[in-house]
Amino acid sequence: MNEFIHLQSKNHSLIIKTDRVPEVLHWGTKIAQIDEDLLLSTERPISQARLDVDVPLSLCPELGSGHFNAPGIEGHRDGLDWAPVFNLVATNQSRNAVEFTLRDDVAKLELTIDLELDFDSDVLKKRTSLKNLGDSRYYLGKLSSTLPLPNHANELMTFHGRWCHEFQTQRQRFEHGGFMQENRRGRTSHENFPGLFVGSNGFSEQNGQVWGFHLGWSGNHQMRADVRSDGRRFVQAGELLLAGESILDTDECYQSPWLYGCYSNSGLNGISQRFQKFVRQNIVKFPVDKPRPVHLNTWEGIYFDHKPEYIMQMASEAAEMGVERFIIDDGWFIGRDGERAALGDWYLDEVKYPNGLEPVIAHVNEKGMEFGLWVEPEMVSQDSNLYRNHPEWVLGLQGYHQPSGRWQYVLDLQNEGCFNYLFERLNDLLTRYNITYLKWDMNRELVQPGHQGRPAVHGQTMALYHLVDELNKAHPDVEIESCSSGGGRIDFEILKRTQRFWASDCNDALERQAIQKGMSYFFPPEVMGAHIGPDECHSTNRRHHINMRGVTALGGHMGVELDPVKEPQEEIEAFSRYIALHKKYRHLLHSGRSFRIDPADKNQNIYGVESDDEMLITVCQLAMPDHALPSPLRISCTDTDAKYQVKLVEMPQISFQLMKQRPKWLDKTLTLSGDNLKEIGITLPILDPESALIVHLQKI
Ligand code: DGJ
């Protein structure tokens, strides 16, 4: 029953051979037609001294059919039915989507595999579901989504990180063995962002074939890339289920999170442009189509020291600087004078705010800004009224001592009373006050995630989604930021119900260059919270000139994170200048195609955004230049036949240390054609370490 399913998007093809099980034959550049001889030409030989039959690398590889690497499914029925082998029983194709139904009549299991190749963005998404058709319970240990890769995909790029150090990348050969990451932290995590890239040898920002992957899930996950001993290779990702976490009764079904994949033959740029387009069109929804407002967030400015009069002064200064949304961070609710108490008591602290929050909000609104508020709904402090009244609402395991994290515990969102309390509190705040924005924080990992004694990361994650969904329904105009000690919960699934990520608690511009670069492979700039902090960074104690801080924050969803009342006038003027620059270009930054340029100097980070008629390029000198003279900036995405006006819009306003004479064009507007820019390029000034410039190109 060999047949082909051919899904096509604007540029790509996914060809699946259907036999006993579906098997991907090609995922990449578009194929015009499937030749009659394709089946014959792709038939594999059978090697000596191994199984006597060909074993397909199917969309859900099975141990029971001779796949000795990670199977797509693991489980059992009281020790039986632990090596299922499926047969394809139905295929339903509708345009660029297909659903396969497979059955194992012995183990009494039904598997459903959904695939969709998004036409516009070329992003592929895949999900796998399992239904128990038997009379007894099925203990599911794992149900992951598998996608194969061609054998020339032999280099891996993965992500690692930690608090204040998100989205760090690592390269390794991918020829034998493999890579595996397991996240058991109960949130997407700083450590194991669920994404990776596999590509042809030496793939770079601009060149090479690359396949990119992201698992849209905010709980535990497992993600791996394996090379089988026969050279075939695959990526596999799914939820990491704790022992006993998924037990399916008769007719019960488990559905995996979506795995998103994407191919590019133009390096990582081709991947990120596709993922970013997909996010814009399919994932993030802004309640109102308006420019992303510039933020001021109070955290690093005042921490827990809340005085309404002073906050209003901060708001006045913020408005003067051009801020459009003012957010009161942690410290506003009853008893919250430090990080050890009060989480869960989501009532205004009337000692700090004797006249209520209303006058502060009114002041913020009078200054023309929106008002936002910080919350951390999933948490409770031991020293809180909520904990004293409901210690049983803590997510945990009876009989064990659970370590606290930031002196707090996680609430059991599957507990109905707890869920309703949180909804009531948040709903009340959003109804009572003119709040248009919530910064939704989540500051600790799940250590003993037990609900009624059973493992509950899956249930907790689904309940979180449900809570946010319910609030979105009740308050459709309110935007939400997903924050988790910075970037601990950044993924497509949470972004379906939020509008912004706090990328990192690290506002150190040098660190941010790497964090934001890593994040940009998946997410567009308009969802990437990026703030200018004070000159001495609170998380690293490193100092950066405003040029480096301003340029770095300007490329995301911009904000400032400081106390403007205490900042010197010179800094205030600079913040205003960068805010104005951001506003001038945010139409382009927040809708254009982002790209990165492979730098000749490894100590540079070069990135940009383009639309059909303009382009903004940032060159950041991260450390000492590699050579005495910088290489020309060659811009390969220009239109060869077009002419461009090229103008410097930003560079350090201080005297340079490494350069005694600057190129004259810096003070002029150049007119250059696309091929000159592409092939010859423009000469850059010698940037001192930790400084940056921005160039604007306008098509004439
Ligand atoms: C962690 C967040 O990432 C910070 O931005 C800030 O909101 C603090 N929590 C407040 O406790």
UniProtKB/TrEMBL annotation:
It holds the Pfam family Melibiase. It is an enzyme of class 3 (hydrolase). Its EC number is 3.2.1.22. The active site is at residues 441, 505. It comes from Vibrio superstes NBRC 103154. Residues 22-244 form the Glycosyl hydrolase family 36 N-terminal domain. The keyword Secreted does not apply. This is Alpha-galactosidase. Belongs to the glycosyl hydrolase.
